[in-house]
Amino acid sequence: MQVPQASAASRRIRRVALGDLLYRTAAKFGDRTAVVDGEQRLSYGEMDALSSQFAHYLLAAHGSGVQVATLCANSVDMLVAINGIHKSANVWVPVNIQLDATQIGYILRHAEVSCIVADEAFCLQPQMAALLQELGLPVVVTMGSEPNPAGATLAALAHGRPTMLPEVDIDGDEPALIMYTSGTTGNPKGVVHSHASVYSAVIGNLSTFAFTAQDVVTGILPLFHCGQHVVTAATCAAGACLVITRGFQAGTVVDTVVRERISVLVGLPMMYAAILADPKAATADFSSVRLCIYAMAPMPRPLVNLIAATLSPNIMLVTGQTEIYPVTMSFRPVEYAERDANYWGISTVVCETAVMDDEGKLLAPGEAGEIVHRGPNVMLGYFKDPAATEAVQKCGWHHTGDLGMIDEGGQLLFLDRKKDMIKTGGENVASIKVESVILSHPAVAGVAVVGLAHPYWSEAICAFVALKPGTTCSEQDLTEHCRANLGKFEVPKAMKFVDTLPLTATGKIQKNVLRKQYADWFTSTRL
């Protein structure tokens, strides 16, 4: 068979480019509201025009193929910047603004950024102002006013430029973004994704969530995180409306759901618990909600039942990683009430999932091993780290570092992170199993279970517990609760009640922080 050679024109016709999502939706739904940011509302036509203008600025000032970082909280300006970066064939580097200046400096240097888009308030913080001055890179200021000591504003730089989509060549396999991992065991790694890998995840999400142009979707989680970014991109592809919030306050979310007629809620389990515990929830009209999506942590069955009765019975757990753009798998806890909270369910249409042993052999249902994926939503690799890329992509699969098992019904059960599996007294204990039991106690709001060095047990199971406001519970109460629901070797050797648990910007519990802080729990005076 003679295959035609791809010309520049045919590549343009068939291209896969993230900036085209907004452009094509604007062509269909130009007058439809694309985003709500407080009092500000932008249509798809307006968002498309503004992002194209910013893209033309980037092309004039920096060309294409360079890294452009964002240091932003959720805002219309941030969405304009992200789409402008993609339209100009540059590489987006989202930076977690909750990191300290040293970590941010490392990311900006390692990513070799040529330009920084940053919120005015962030630029004016003393440590960040010093870092930006030291780097000497051009800064585009968002949510700011002219004149600005940190640099020209996005609005000023985009003003008067062409509003049409720039004519630049983009190959679907070219890098679209470098997103840095949390770096819990050292410096964060830069995960490189192509236009095609993120685009495929968007298509998978459209299928999984059944988004339509009539949907109104929350933007509570930070846009610098892969989960909120891909939900936002899928919202755009569908022509739906995104309602942005900065930070999380339960009462504000209740008001937003009612006022904007939210149809799709996206949040963490603890967010749902706080929303339903807010006094406003008792009389709020939640009839617009058709889907509740959650991630990051298992959801206790009582909370599932409360959401089903109050918000919507259409509840979905979704999973993914920075390295394999979400969503990878989804699980519906209401439909599978007999399965516990640690089930991840089935793969999306763009992702294949299996369980593998340490020798690279794929395991049968009922056998435990490492969860592996493959599909078009997998990263290109780690930026400037070929050895780490090769290690995580061995045997032709992406290795997650998670342990799991596929049951006879084809549903995946998550067992634990490899690094979180506790080895105590010759037994392997999944920390997440112990956490699920403790979370089922009515007084518990959050828990982290870790293994700490012990002179006799090798590792001792320890639970750090945060209680719900207004409740009381003793260590003996929780220990008895665990003894009634766990094997003898799975019961924590010690518990510590804490006011709060250390969290990342996206709500993940930082067990590494607890392990470091309490490393000598059993080898010195108990804290």
Question: In a few lines, what is going on in this structure?
Answer:
The chain is an alpha/beta fold. Helix content is 32%, strand content 24%. It folds into 3 domains: 14-196, Rossmann fold (3-Layer(aba) Sandwich); 248-417, ANL, N-terminal domain (Rossmann fold), CATH 3.40.50.12780; 421-517, ANL, C-terminal domain (GMP Synthetase, Chain A, domain 3, 2-Layer Sandwich), CATH 3.30.300.
Mean pLDDT: 93
**Structural shape:** globular
Q: Any guess at the CATH architecture of the largest domain?
A: 3-Layer(aba) Sandwich
Poorly predicted tracts of residues: none
The structure class reads alpha/beta
What's the number of extended β-strand segments?
25
Report the helical percentage. 25-40%
Tell me the number of structural domains: 3
Q: CATH first level of the largest domain: which class?
A: Alpha Beta
Tally of individual helices: 17
Please state the CA-atom Rg, rounded to the nearest Å: 24 Å
Distance between the termini: 73 Å
* CATH fold-level label of the largest domain: Rossmann fold
> How are the strands of the biggest sheet laid out side by side?
11-12-13-14-15-20-19-17-16
Strand content: 15-25%
Q: What's the main sheet like?
A: 9 strands, mixed
General description of the model:
- It is globular and about 70 Å long.
- The chain is an alpha/beta fold.
- The model has no long low-confidence stretch (mean pLDDT 93).
- The strands form six sheets. The protein has a nine-stranded mixed sheet with strand order 11-12-13-14-15-20-19-17-16. The chain has a four-stranded mixed sheet with strand order 2-1-10-9, with helices on both faces.
- Helix 3 packs across helix 4 and helix 9 packs across helix 10 (226-238).
- Helix content is 32%, strand content 24%.
- The chain folds into three domains: 14-196, 3-Layer(aba) Sandwich (Rossmann fold), CATH 3.40.50; 248-417, ANL, N-terminal domain (Rossmann fold, 3-Layer(aba) Sandwich), CATH 3.40.50.12780; 421-517, ANL, C-terminal domain (GMP Synthetase, Chain A, domain 3), CATH 3.30.300.30.
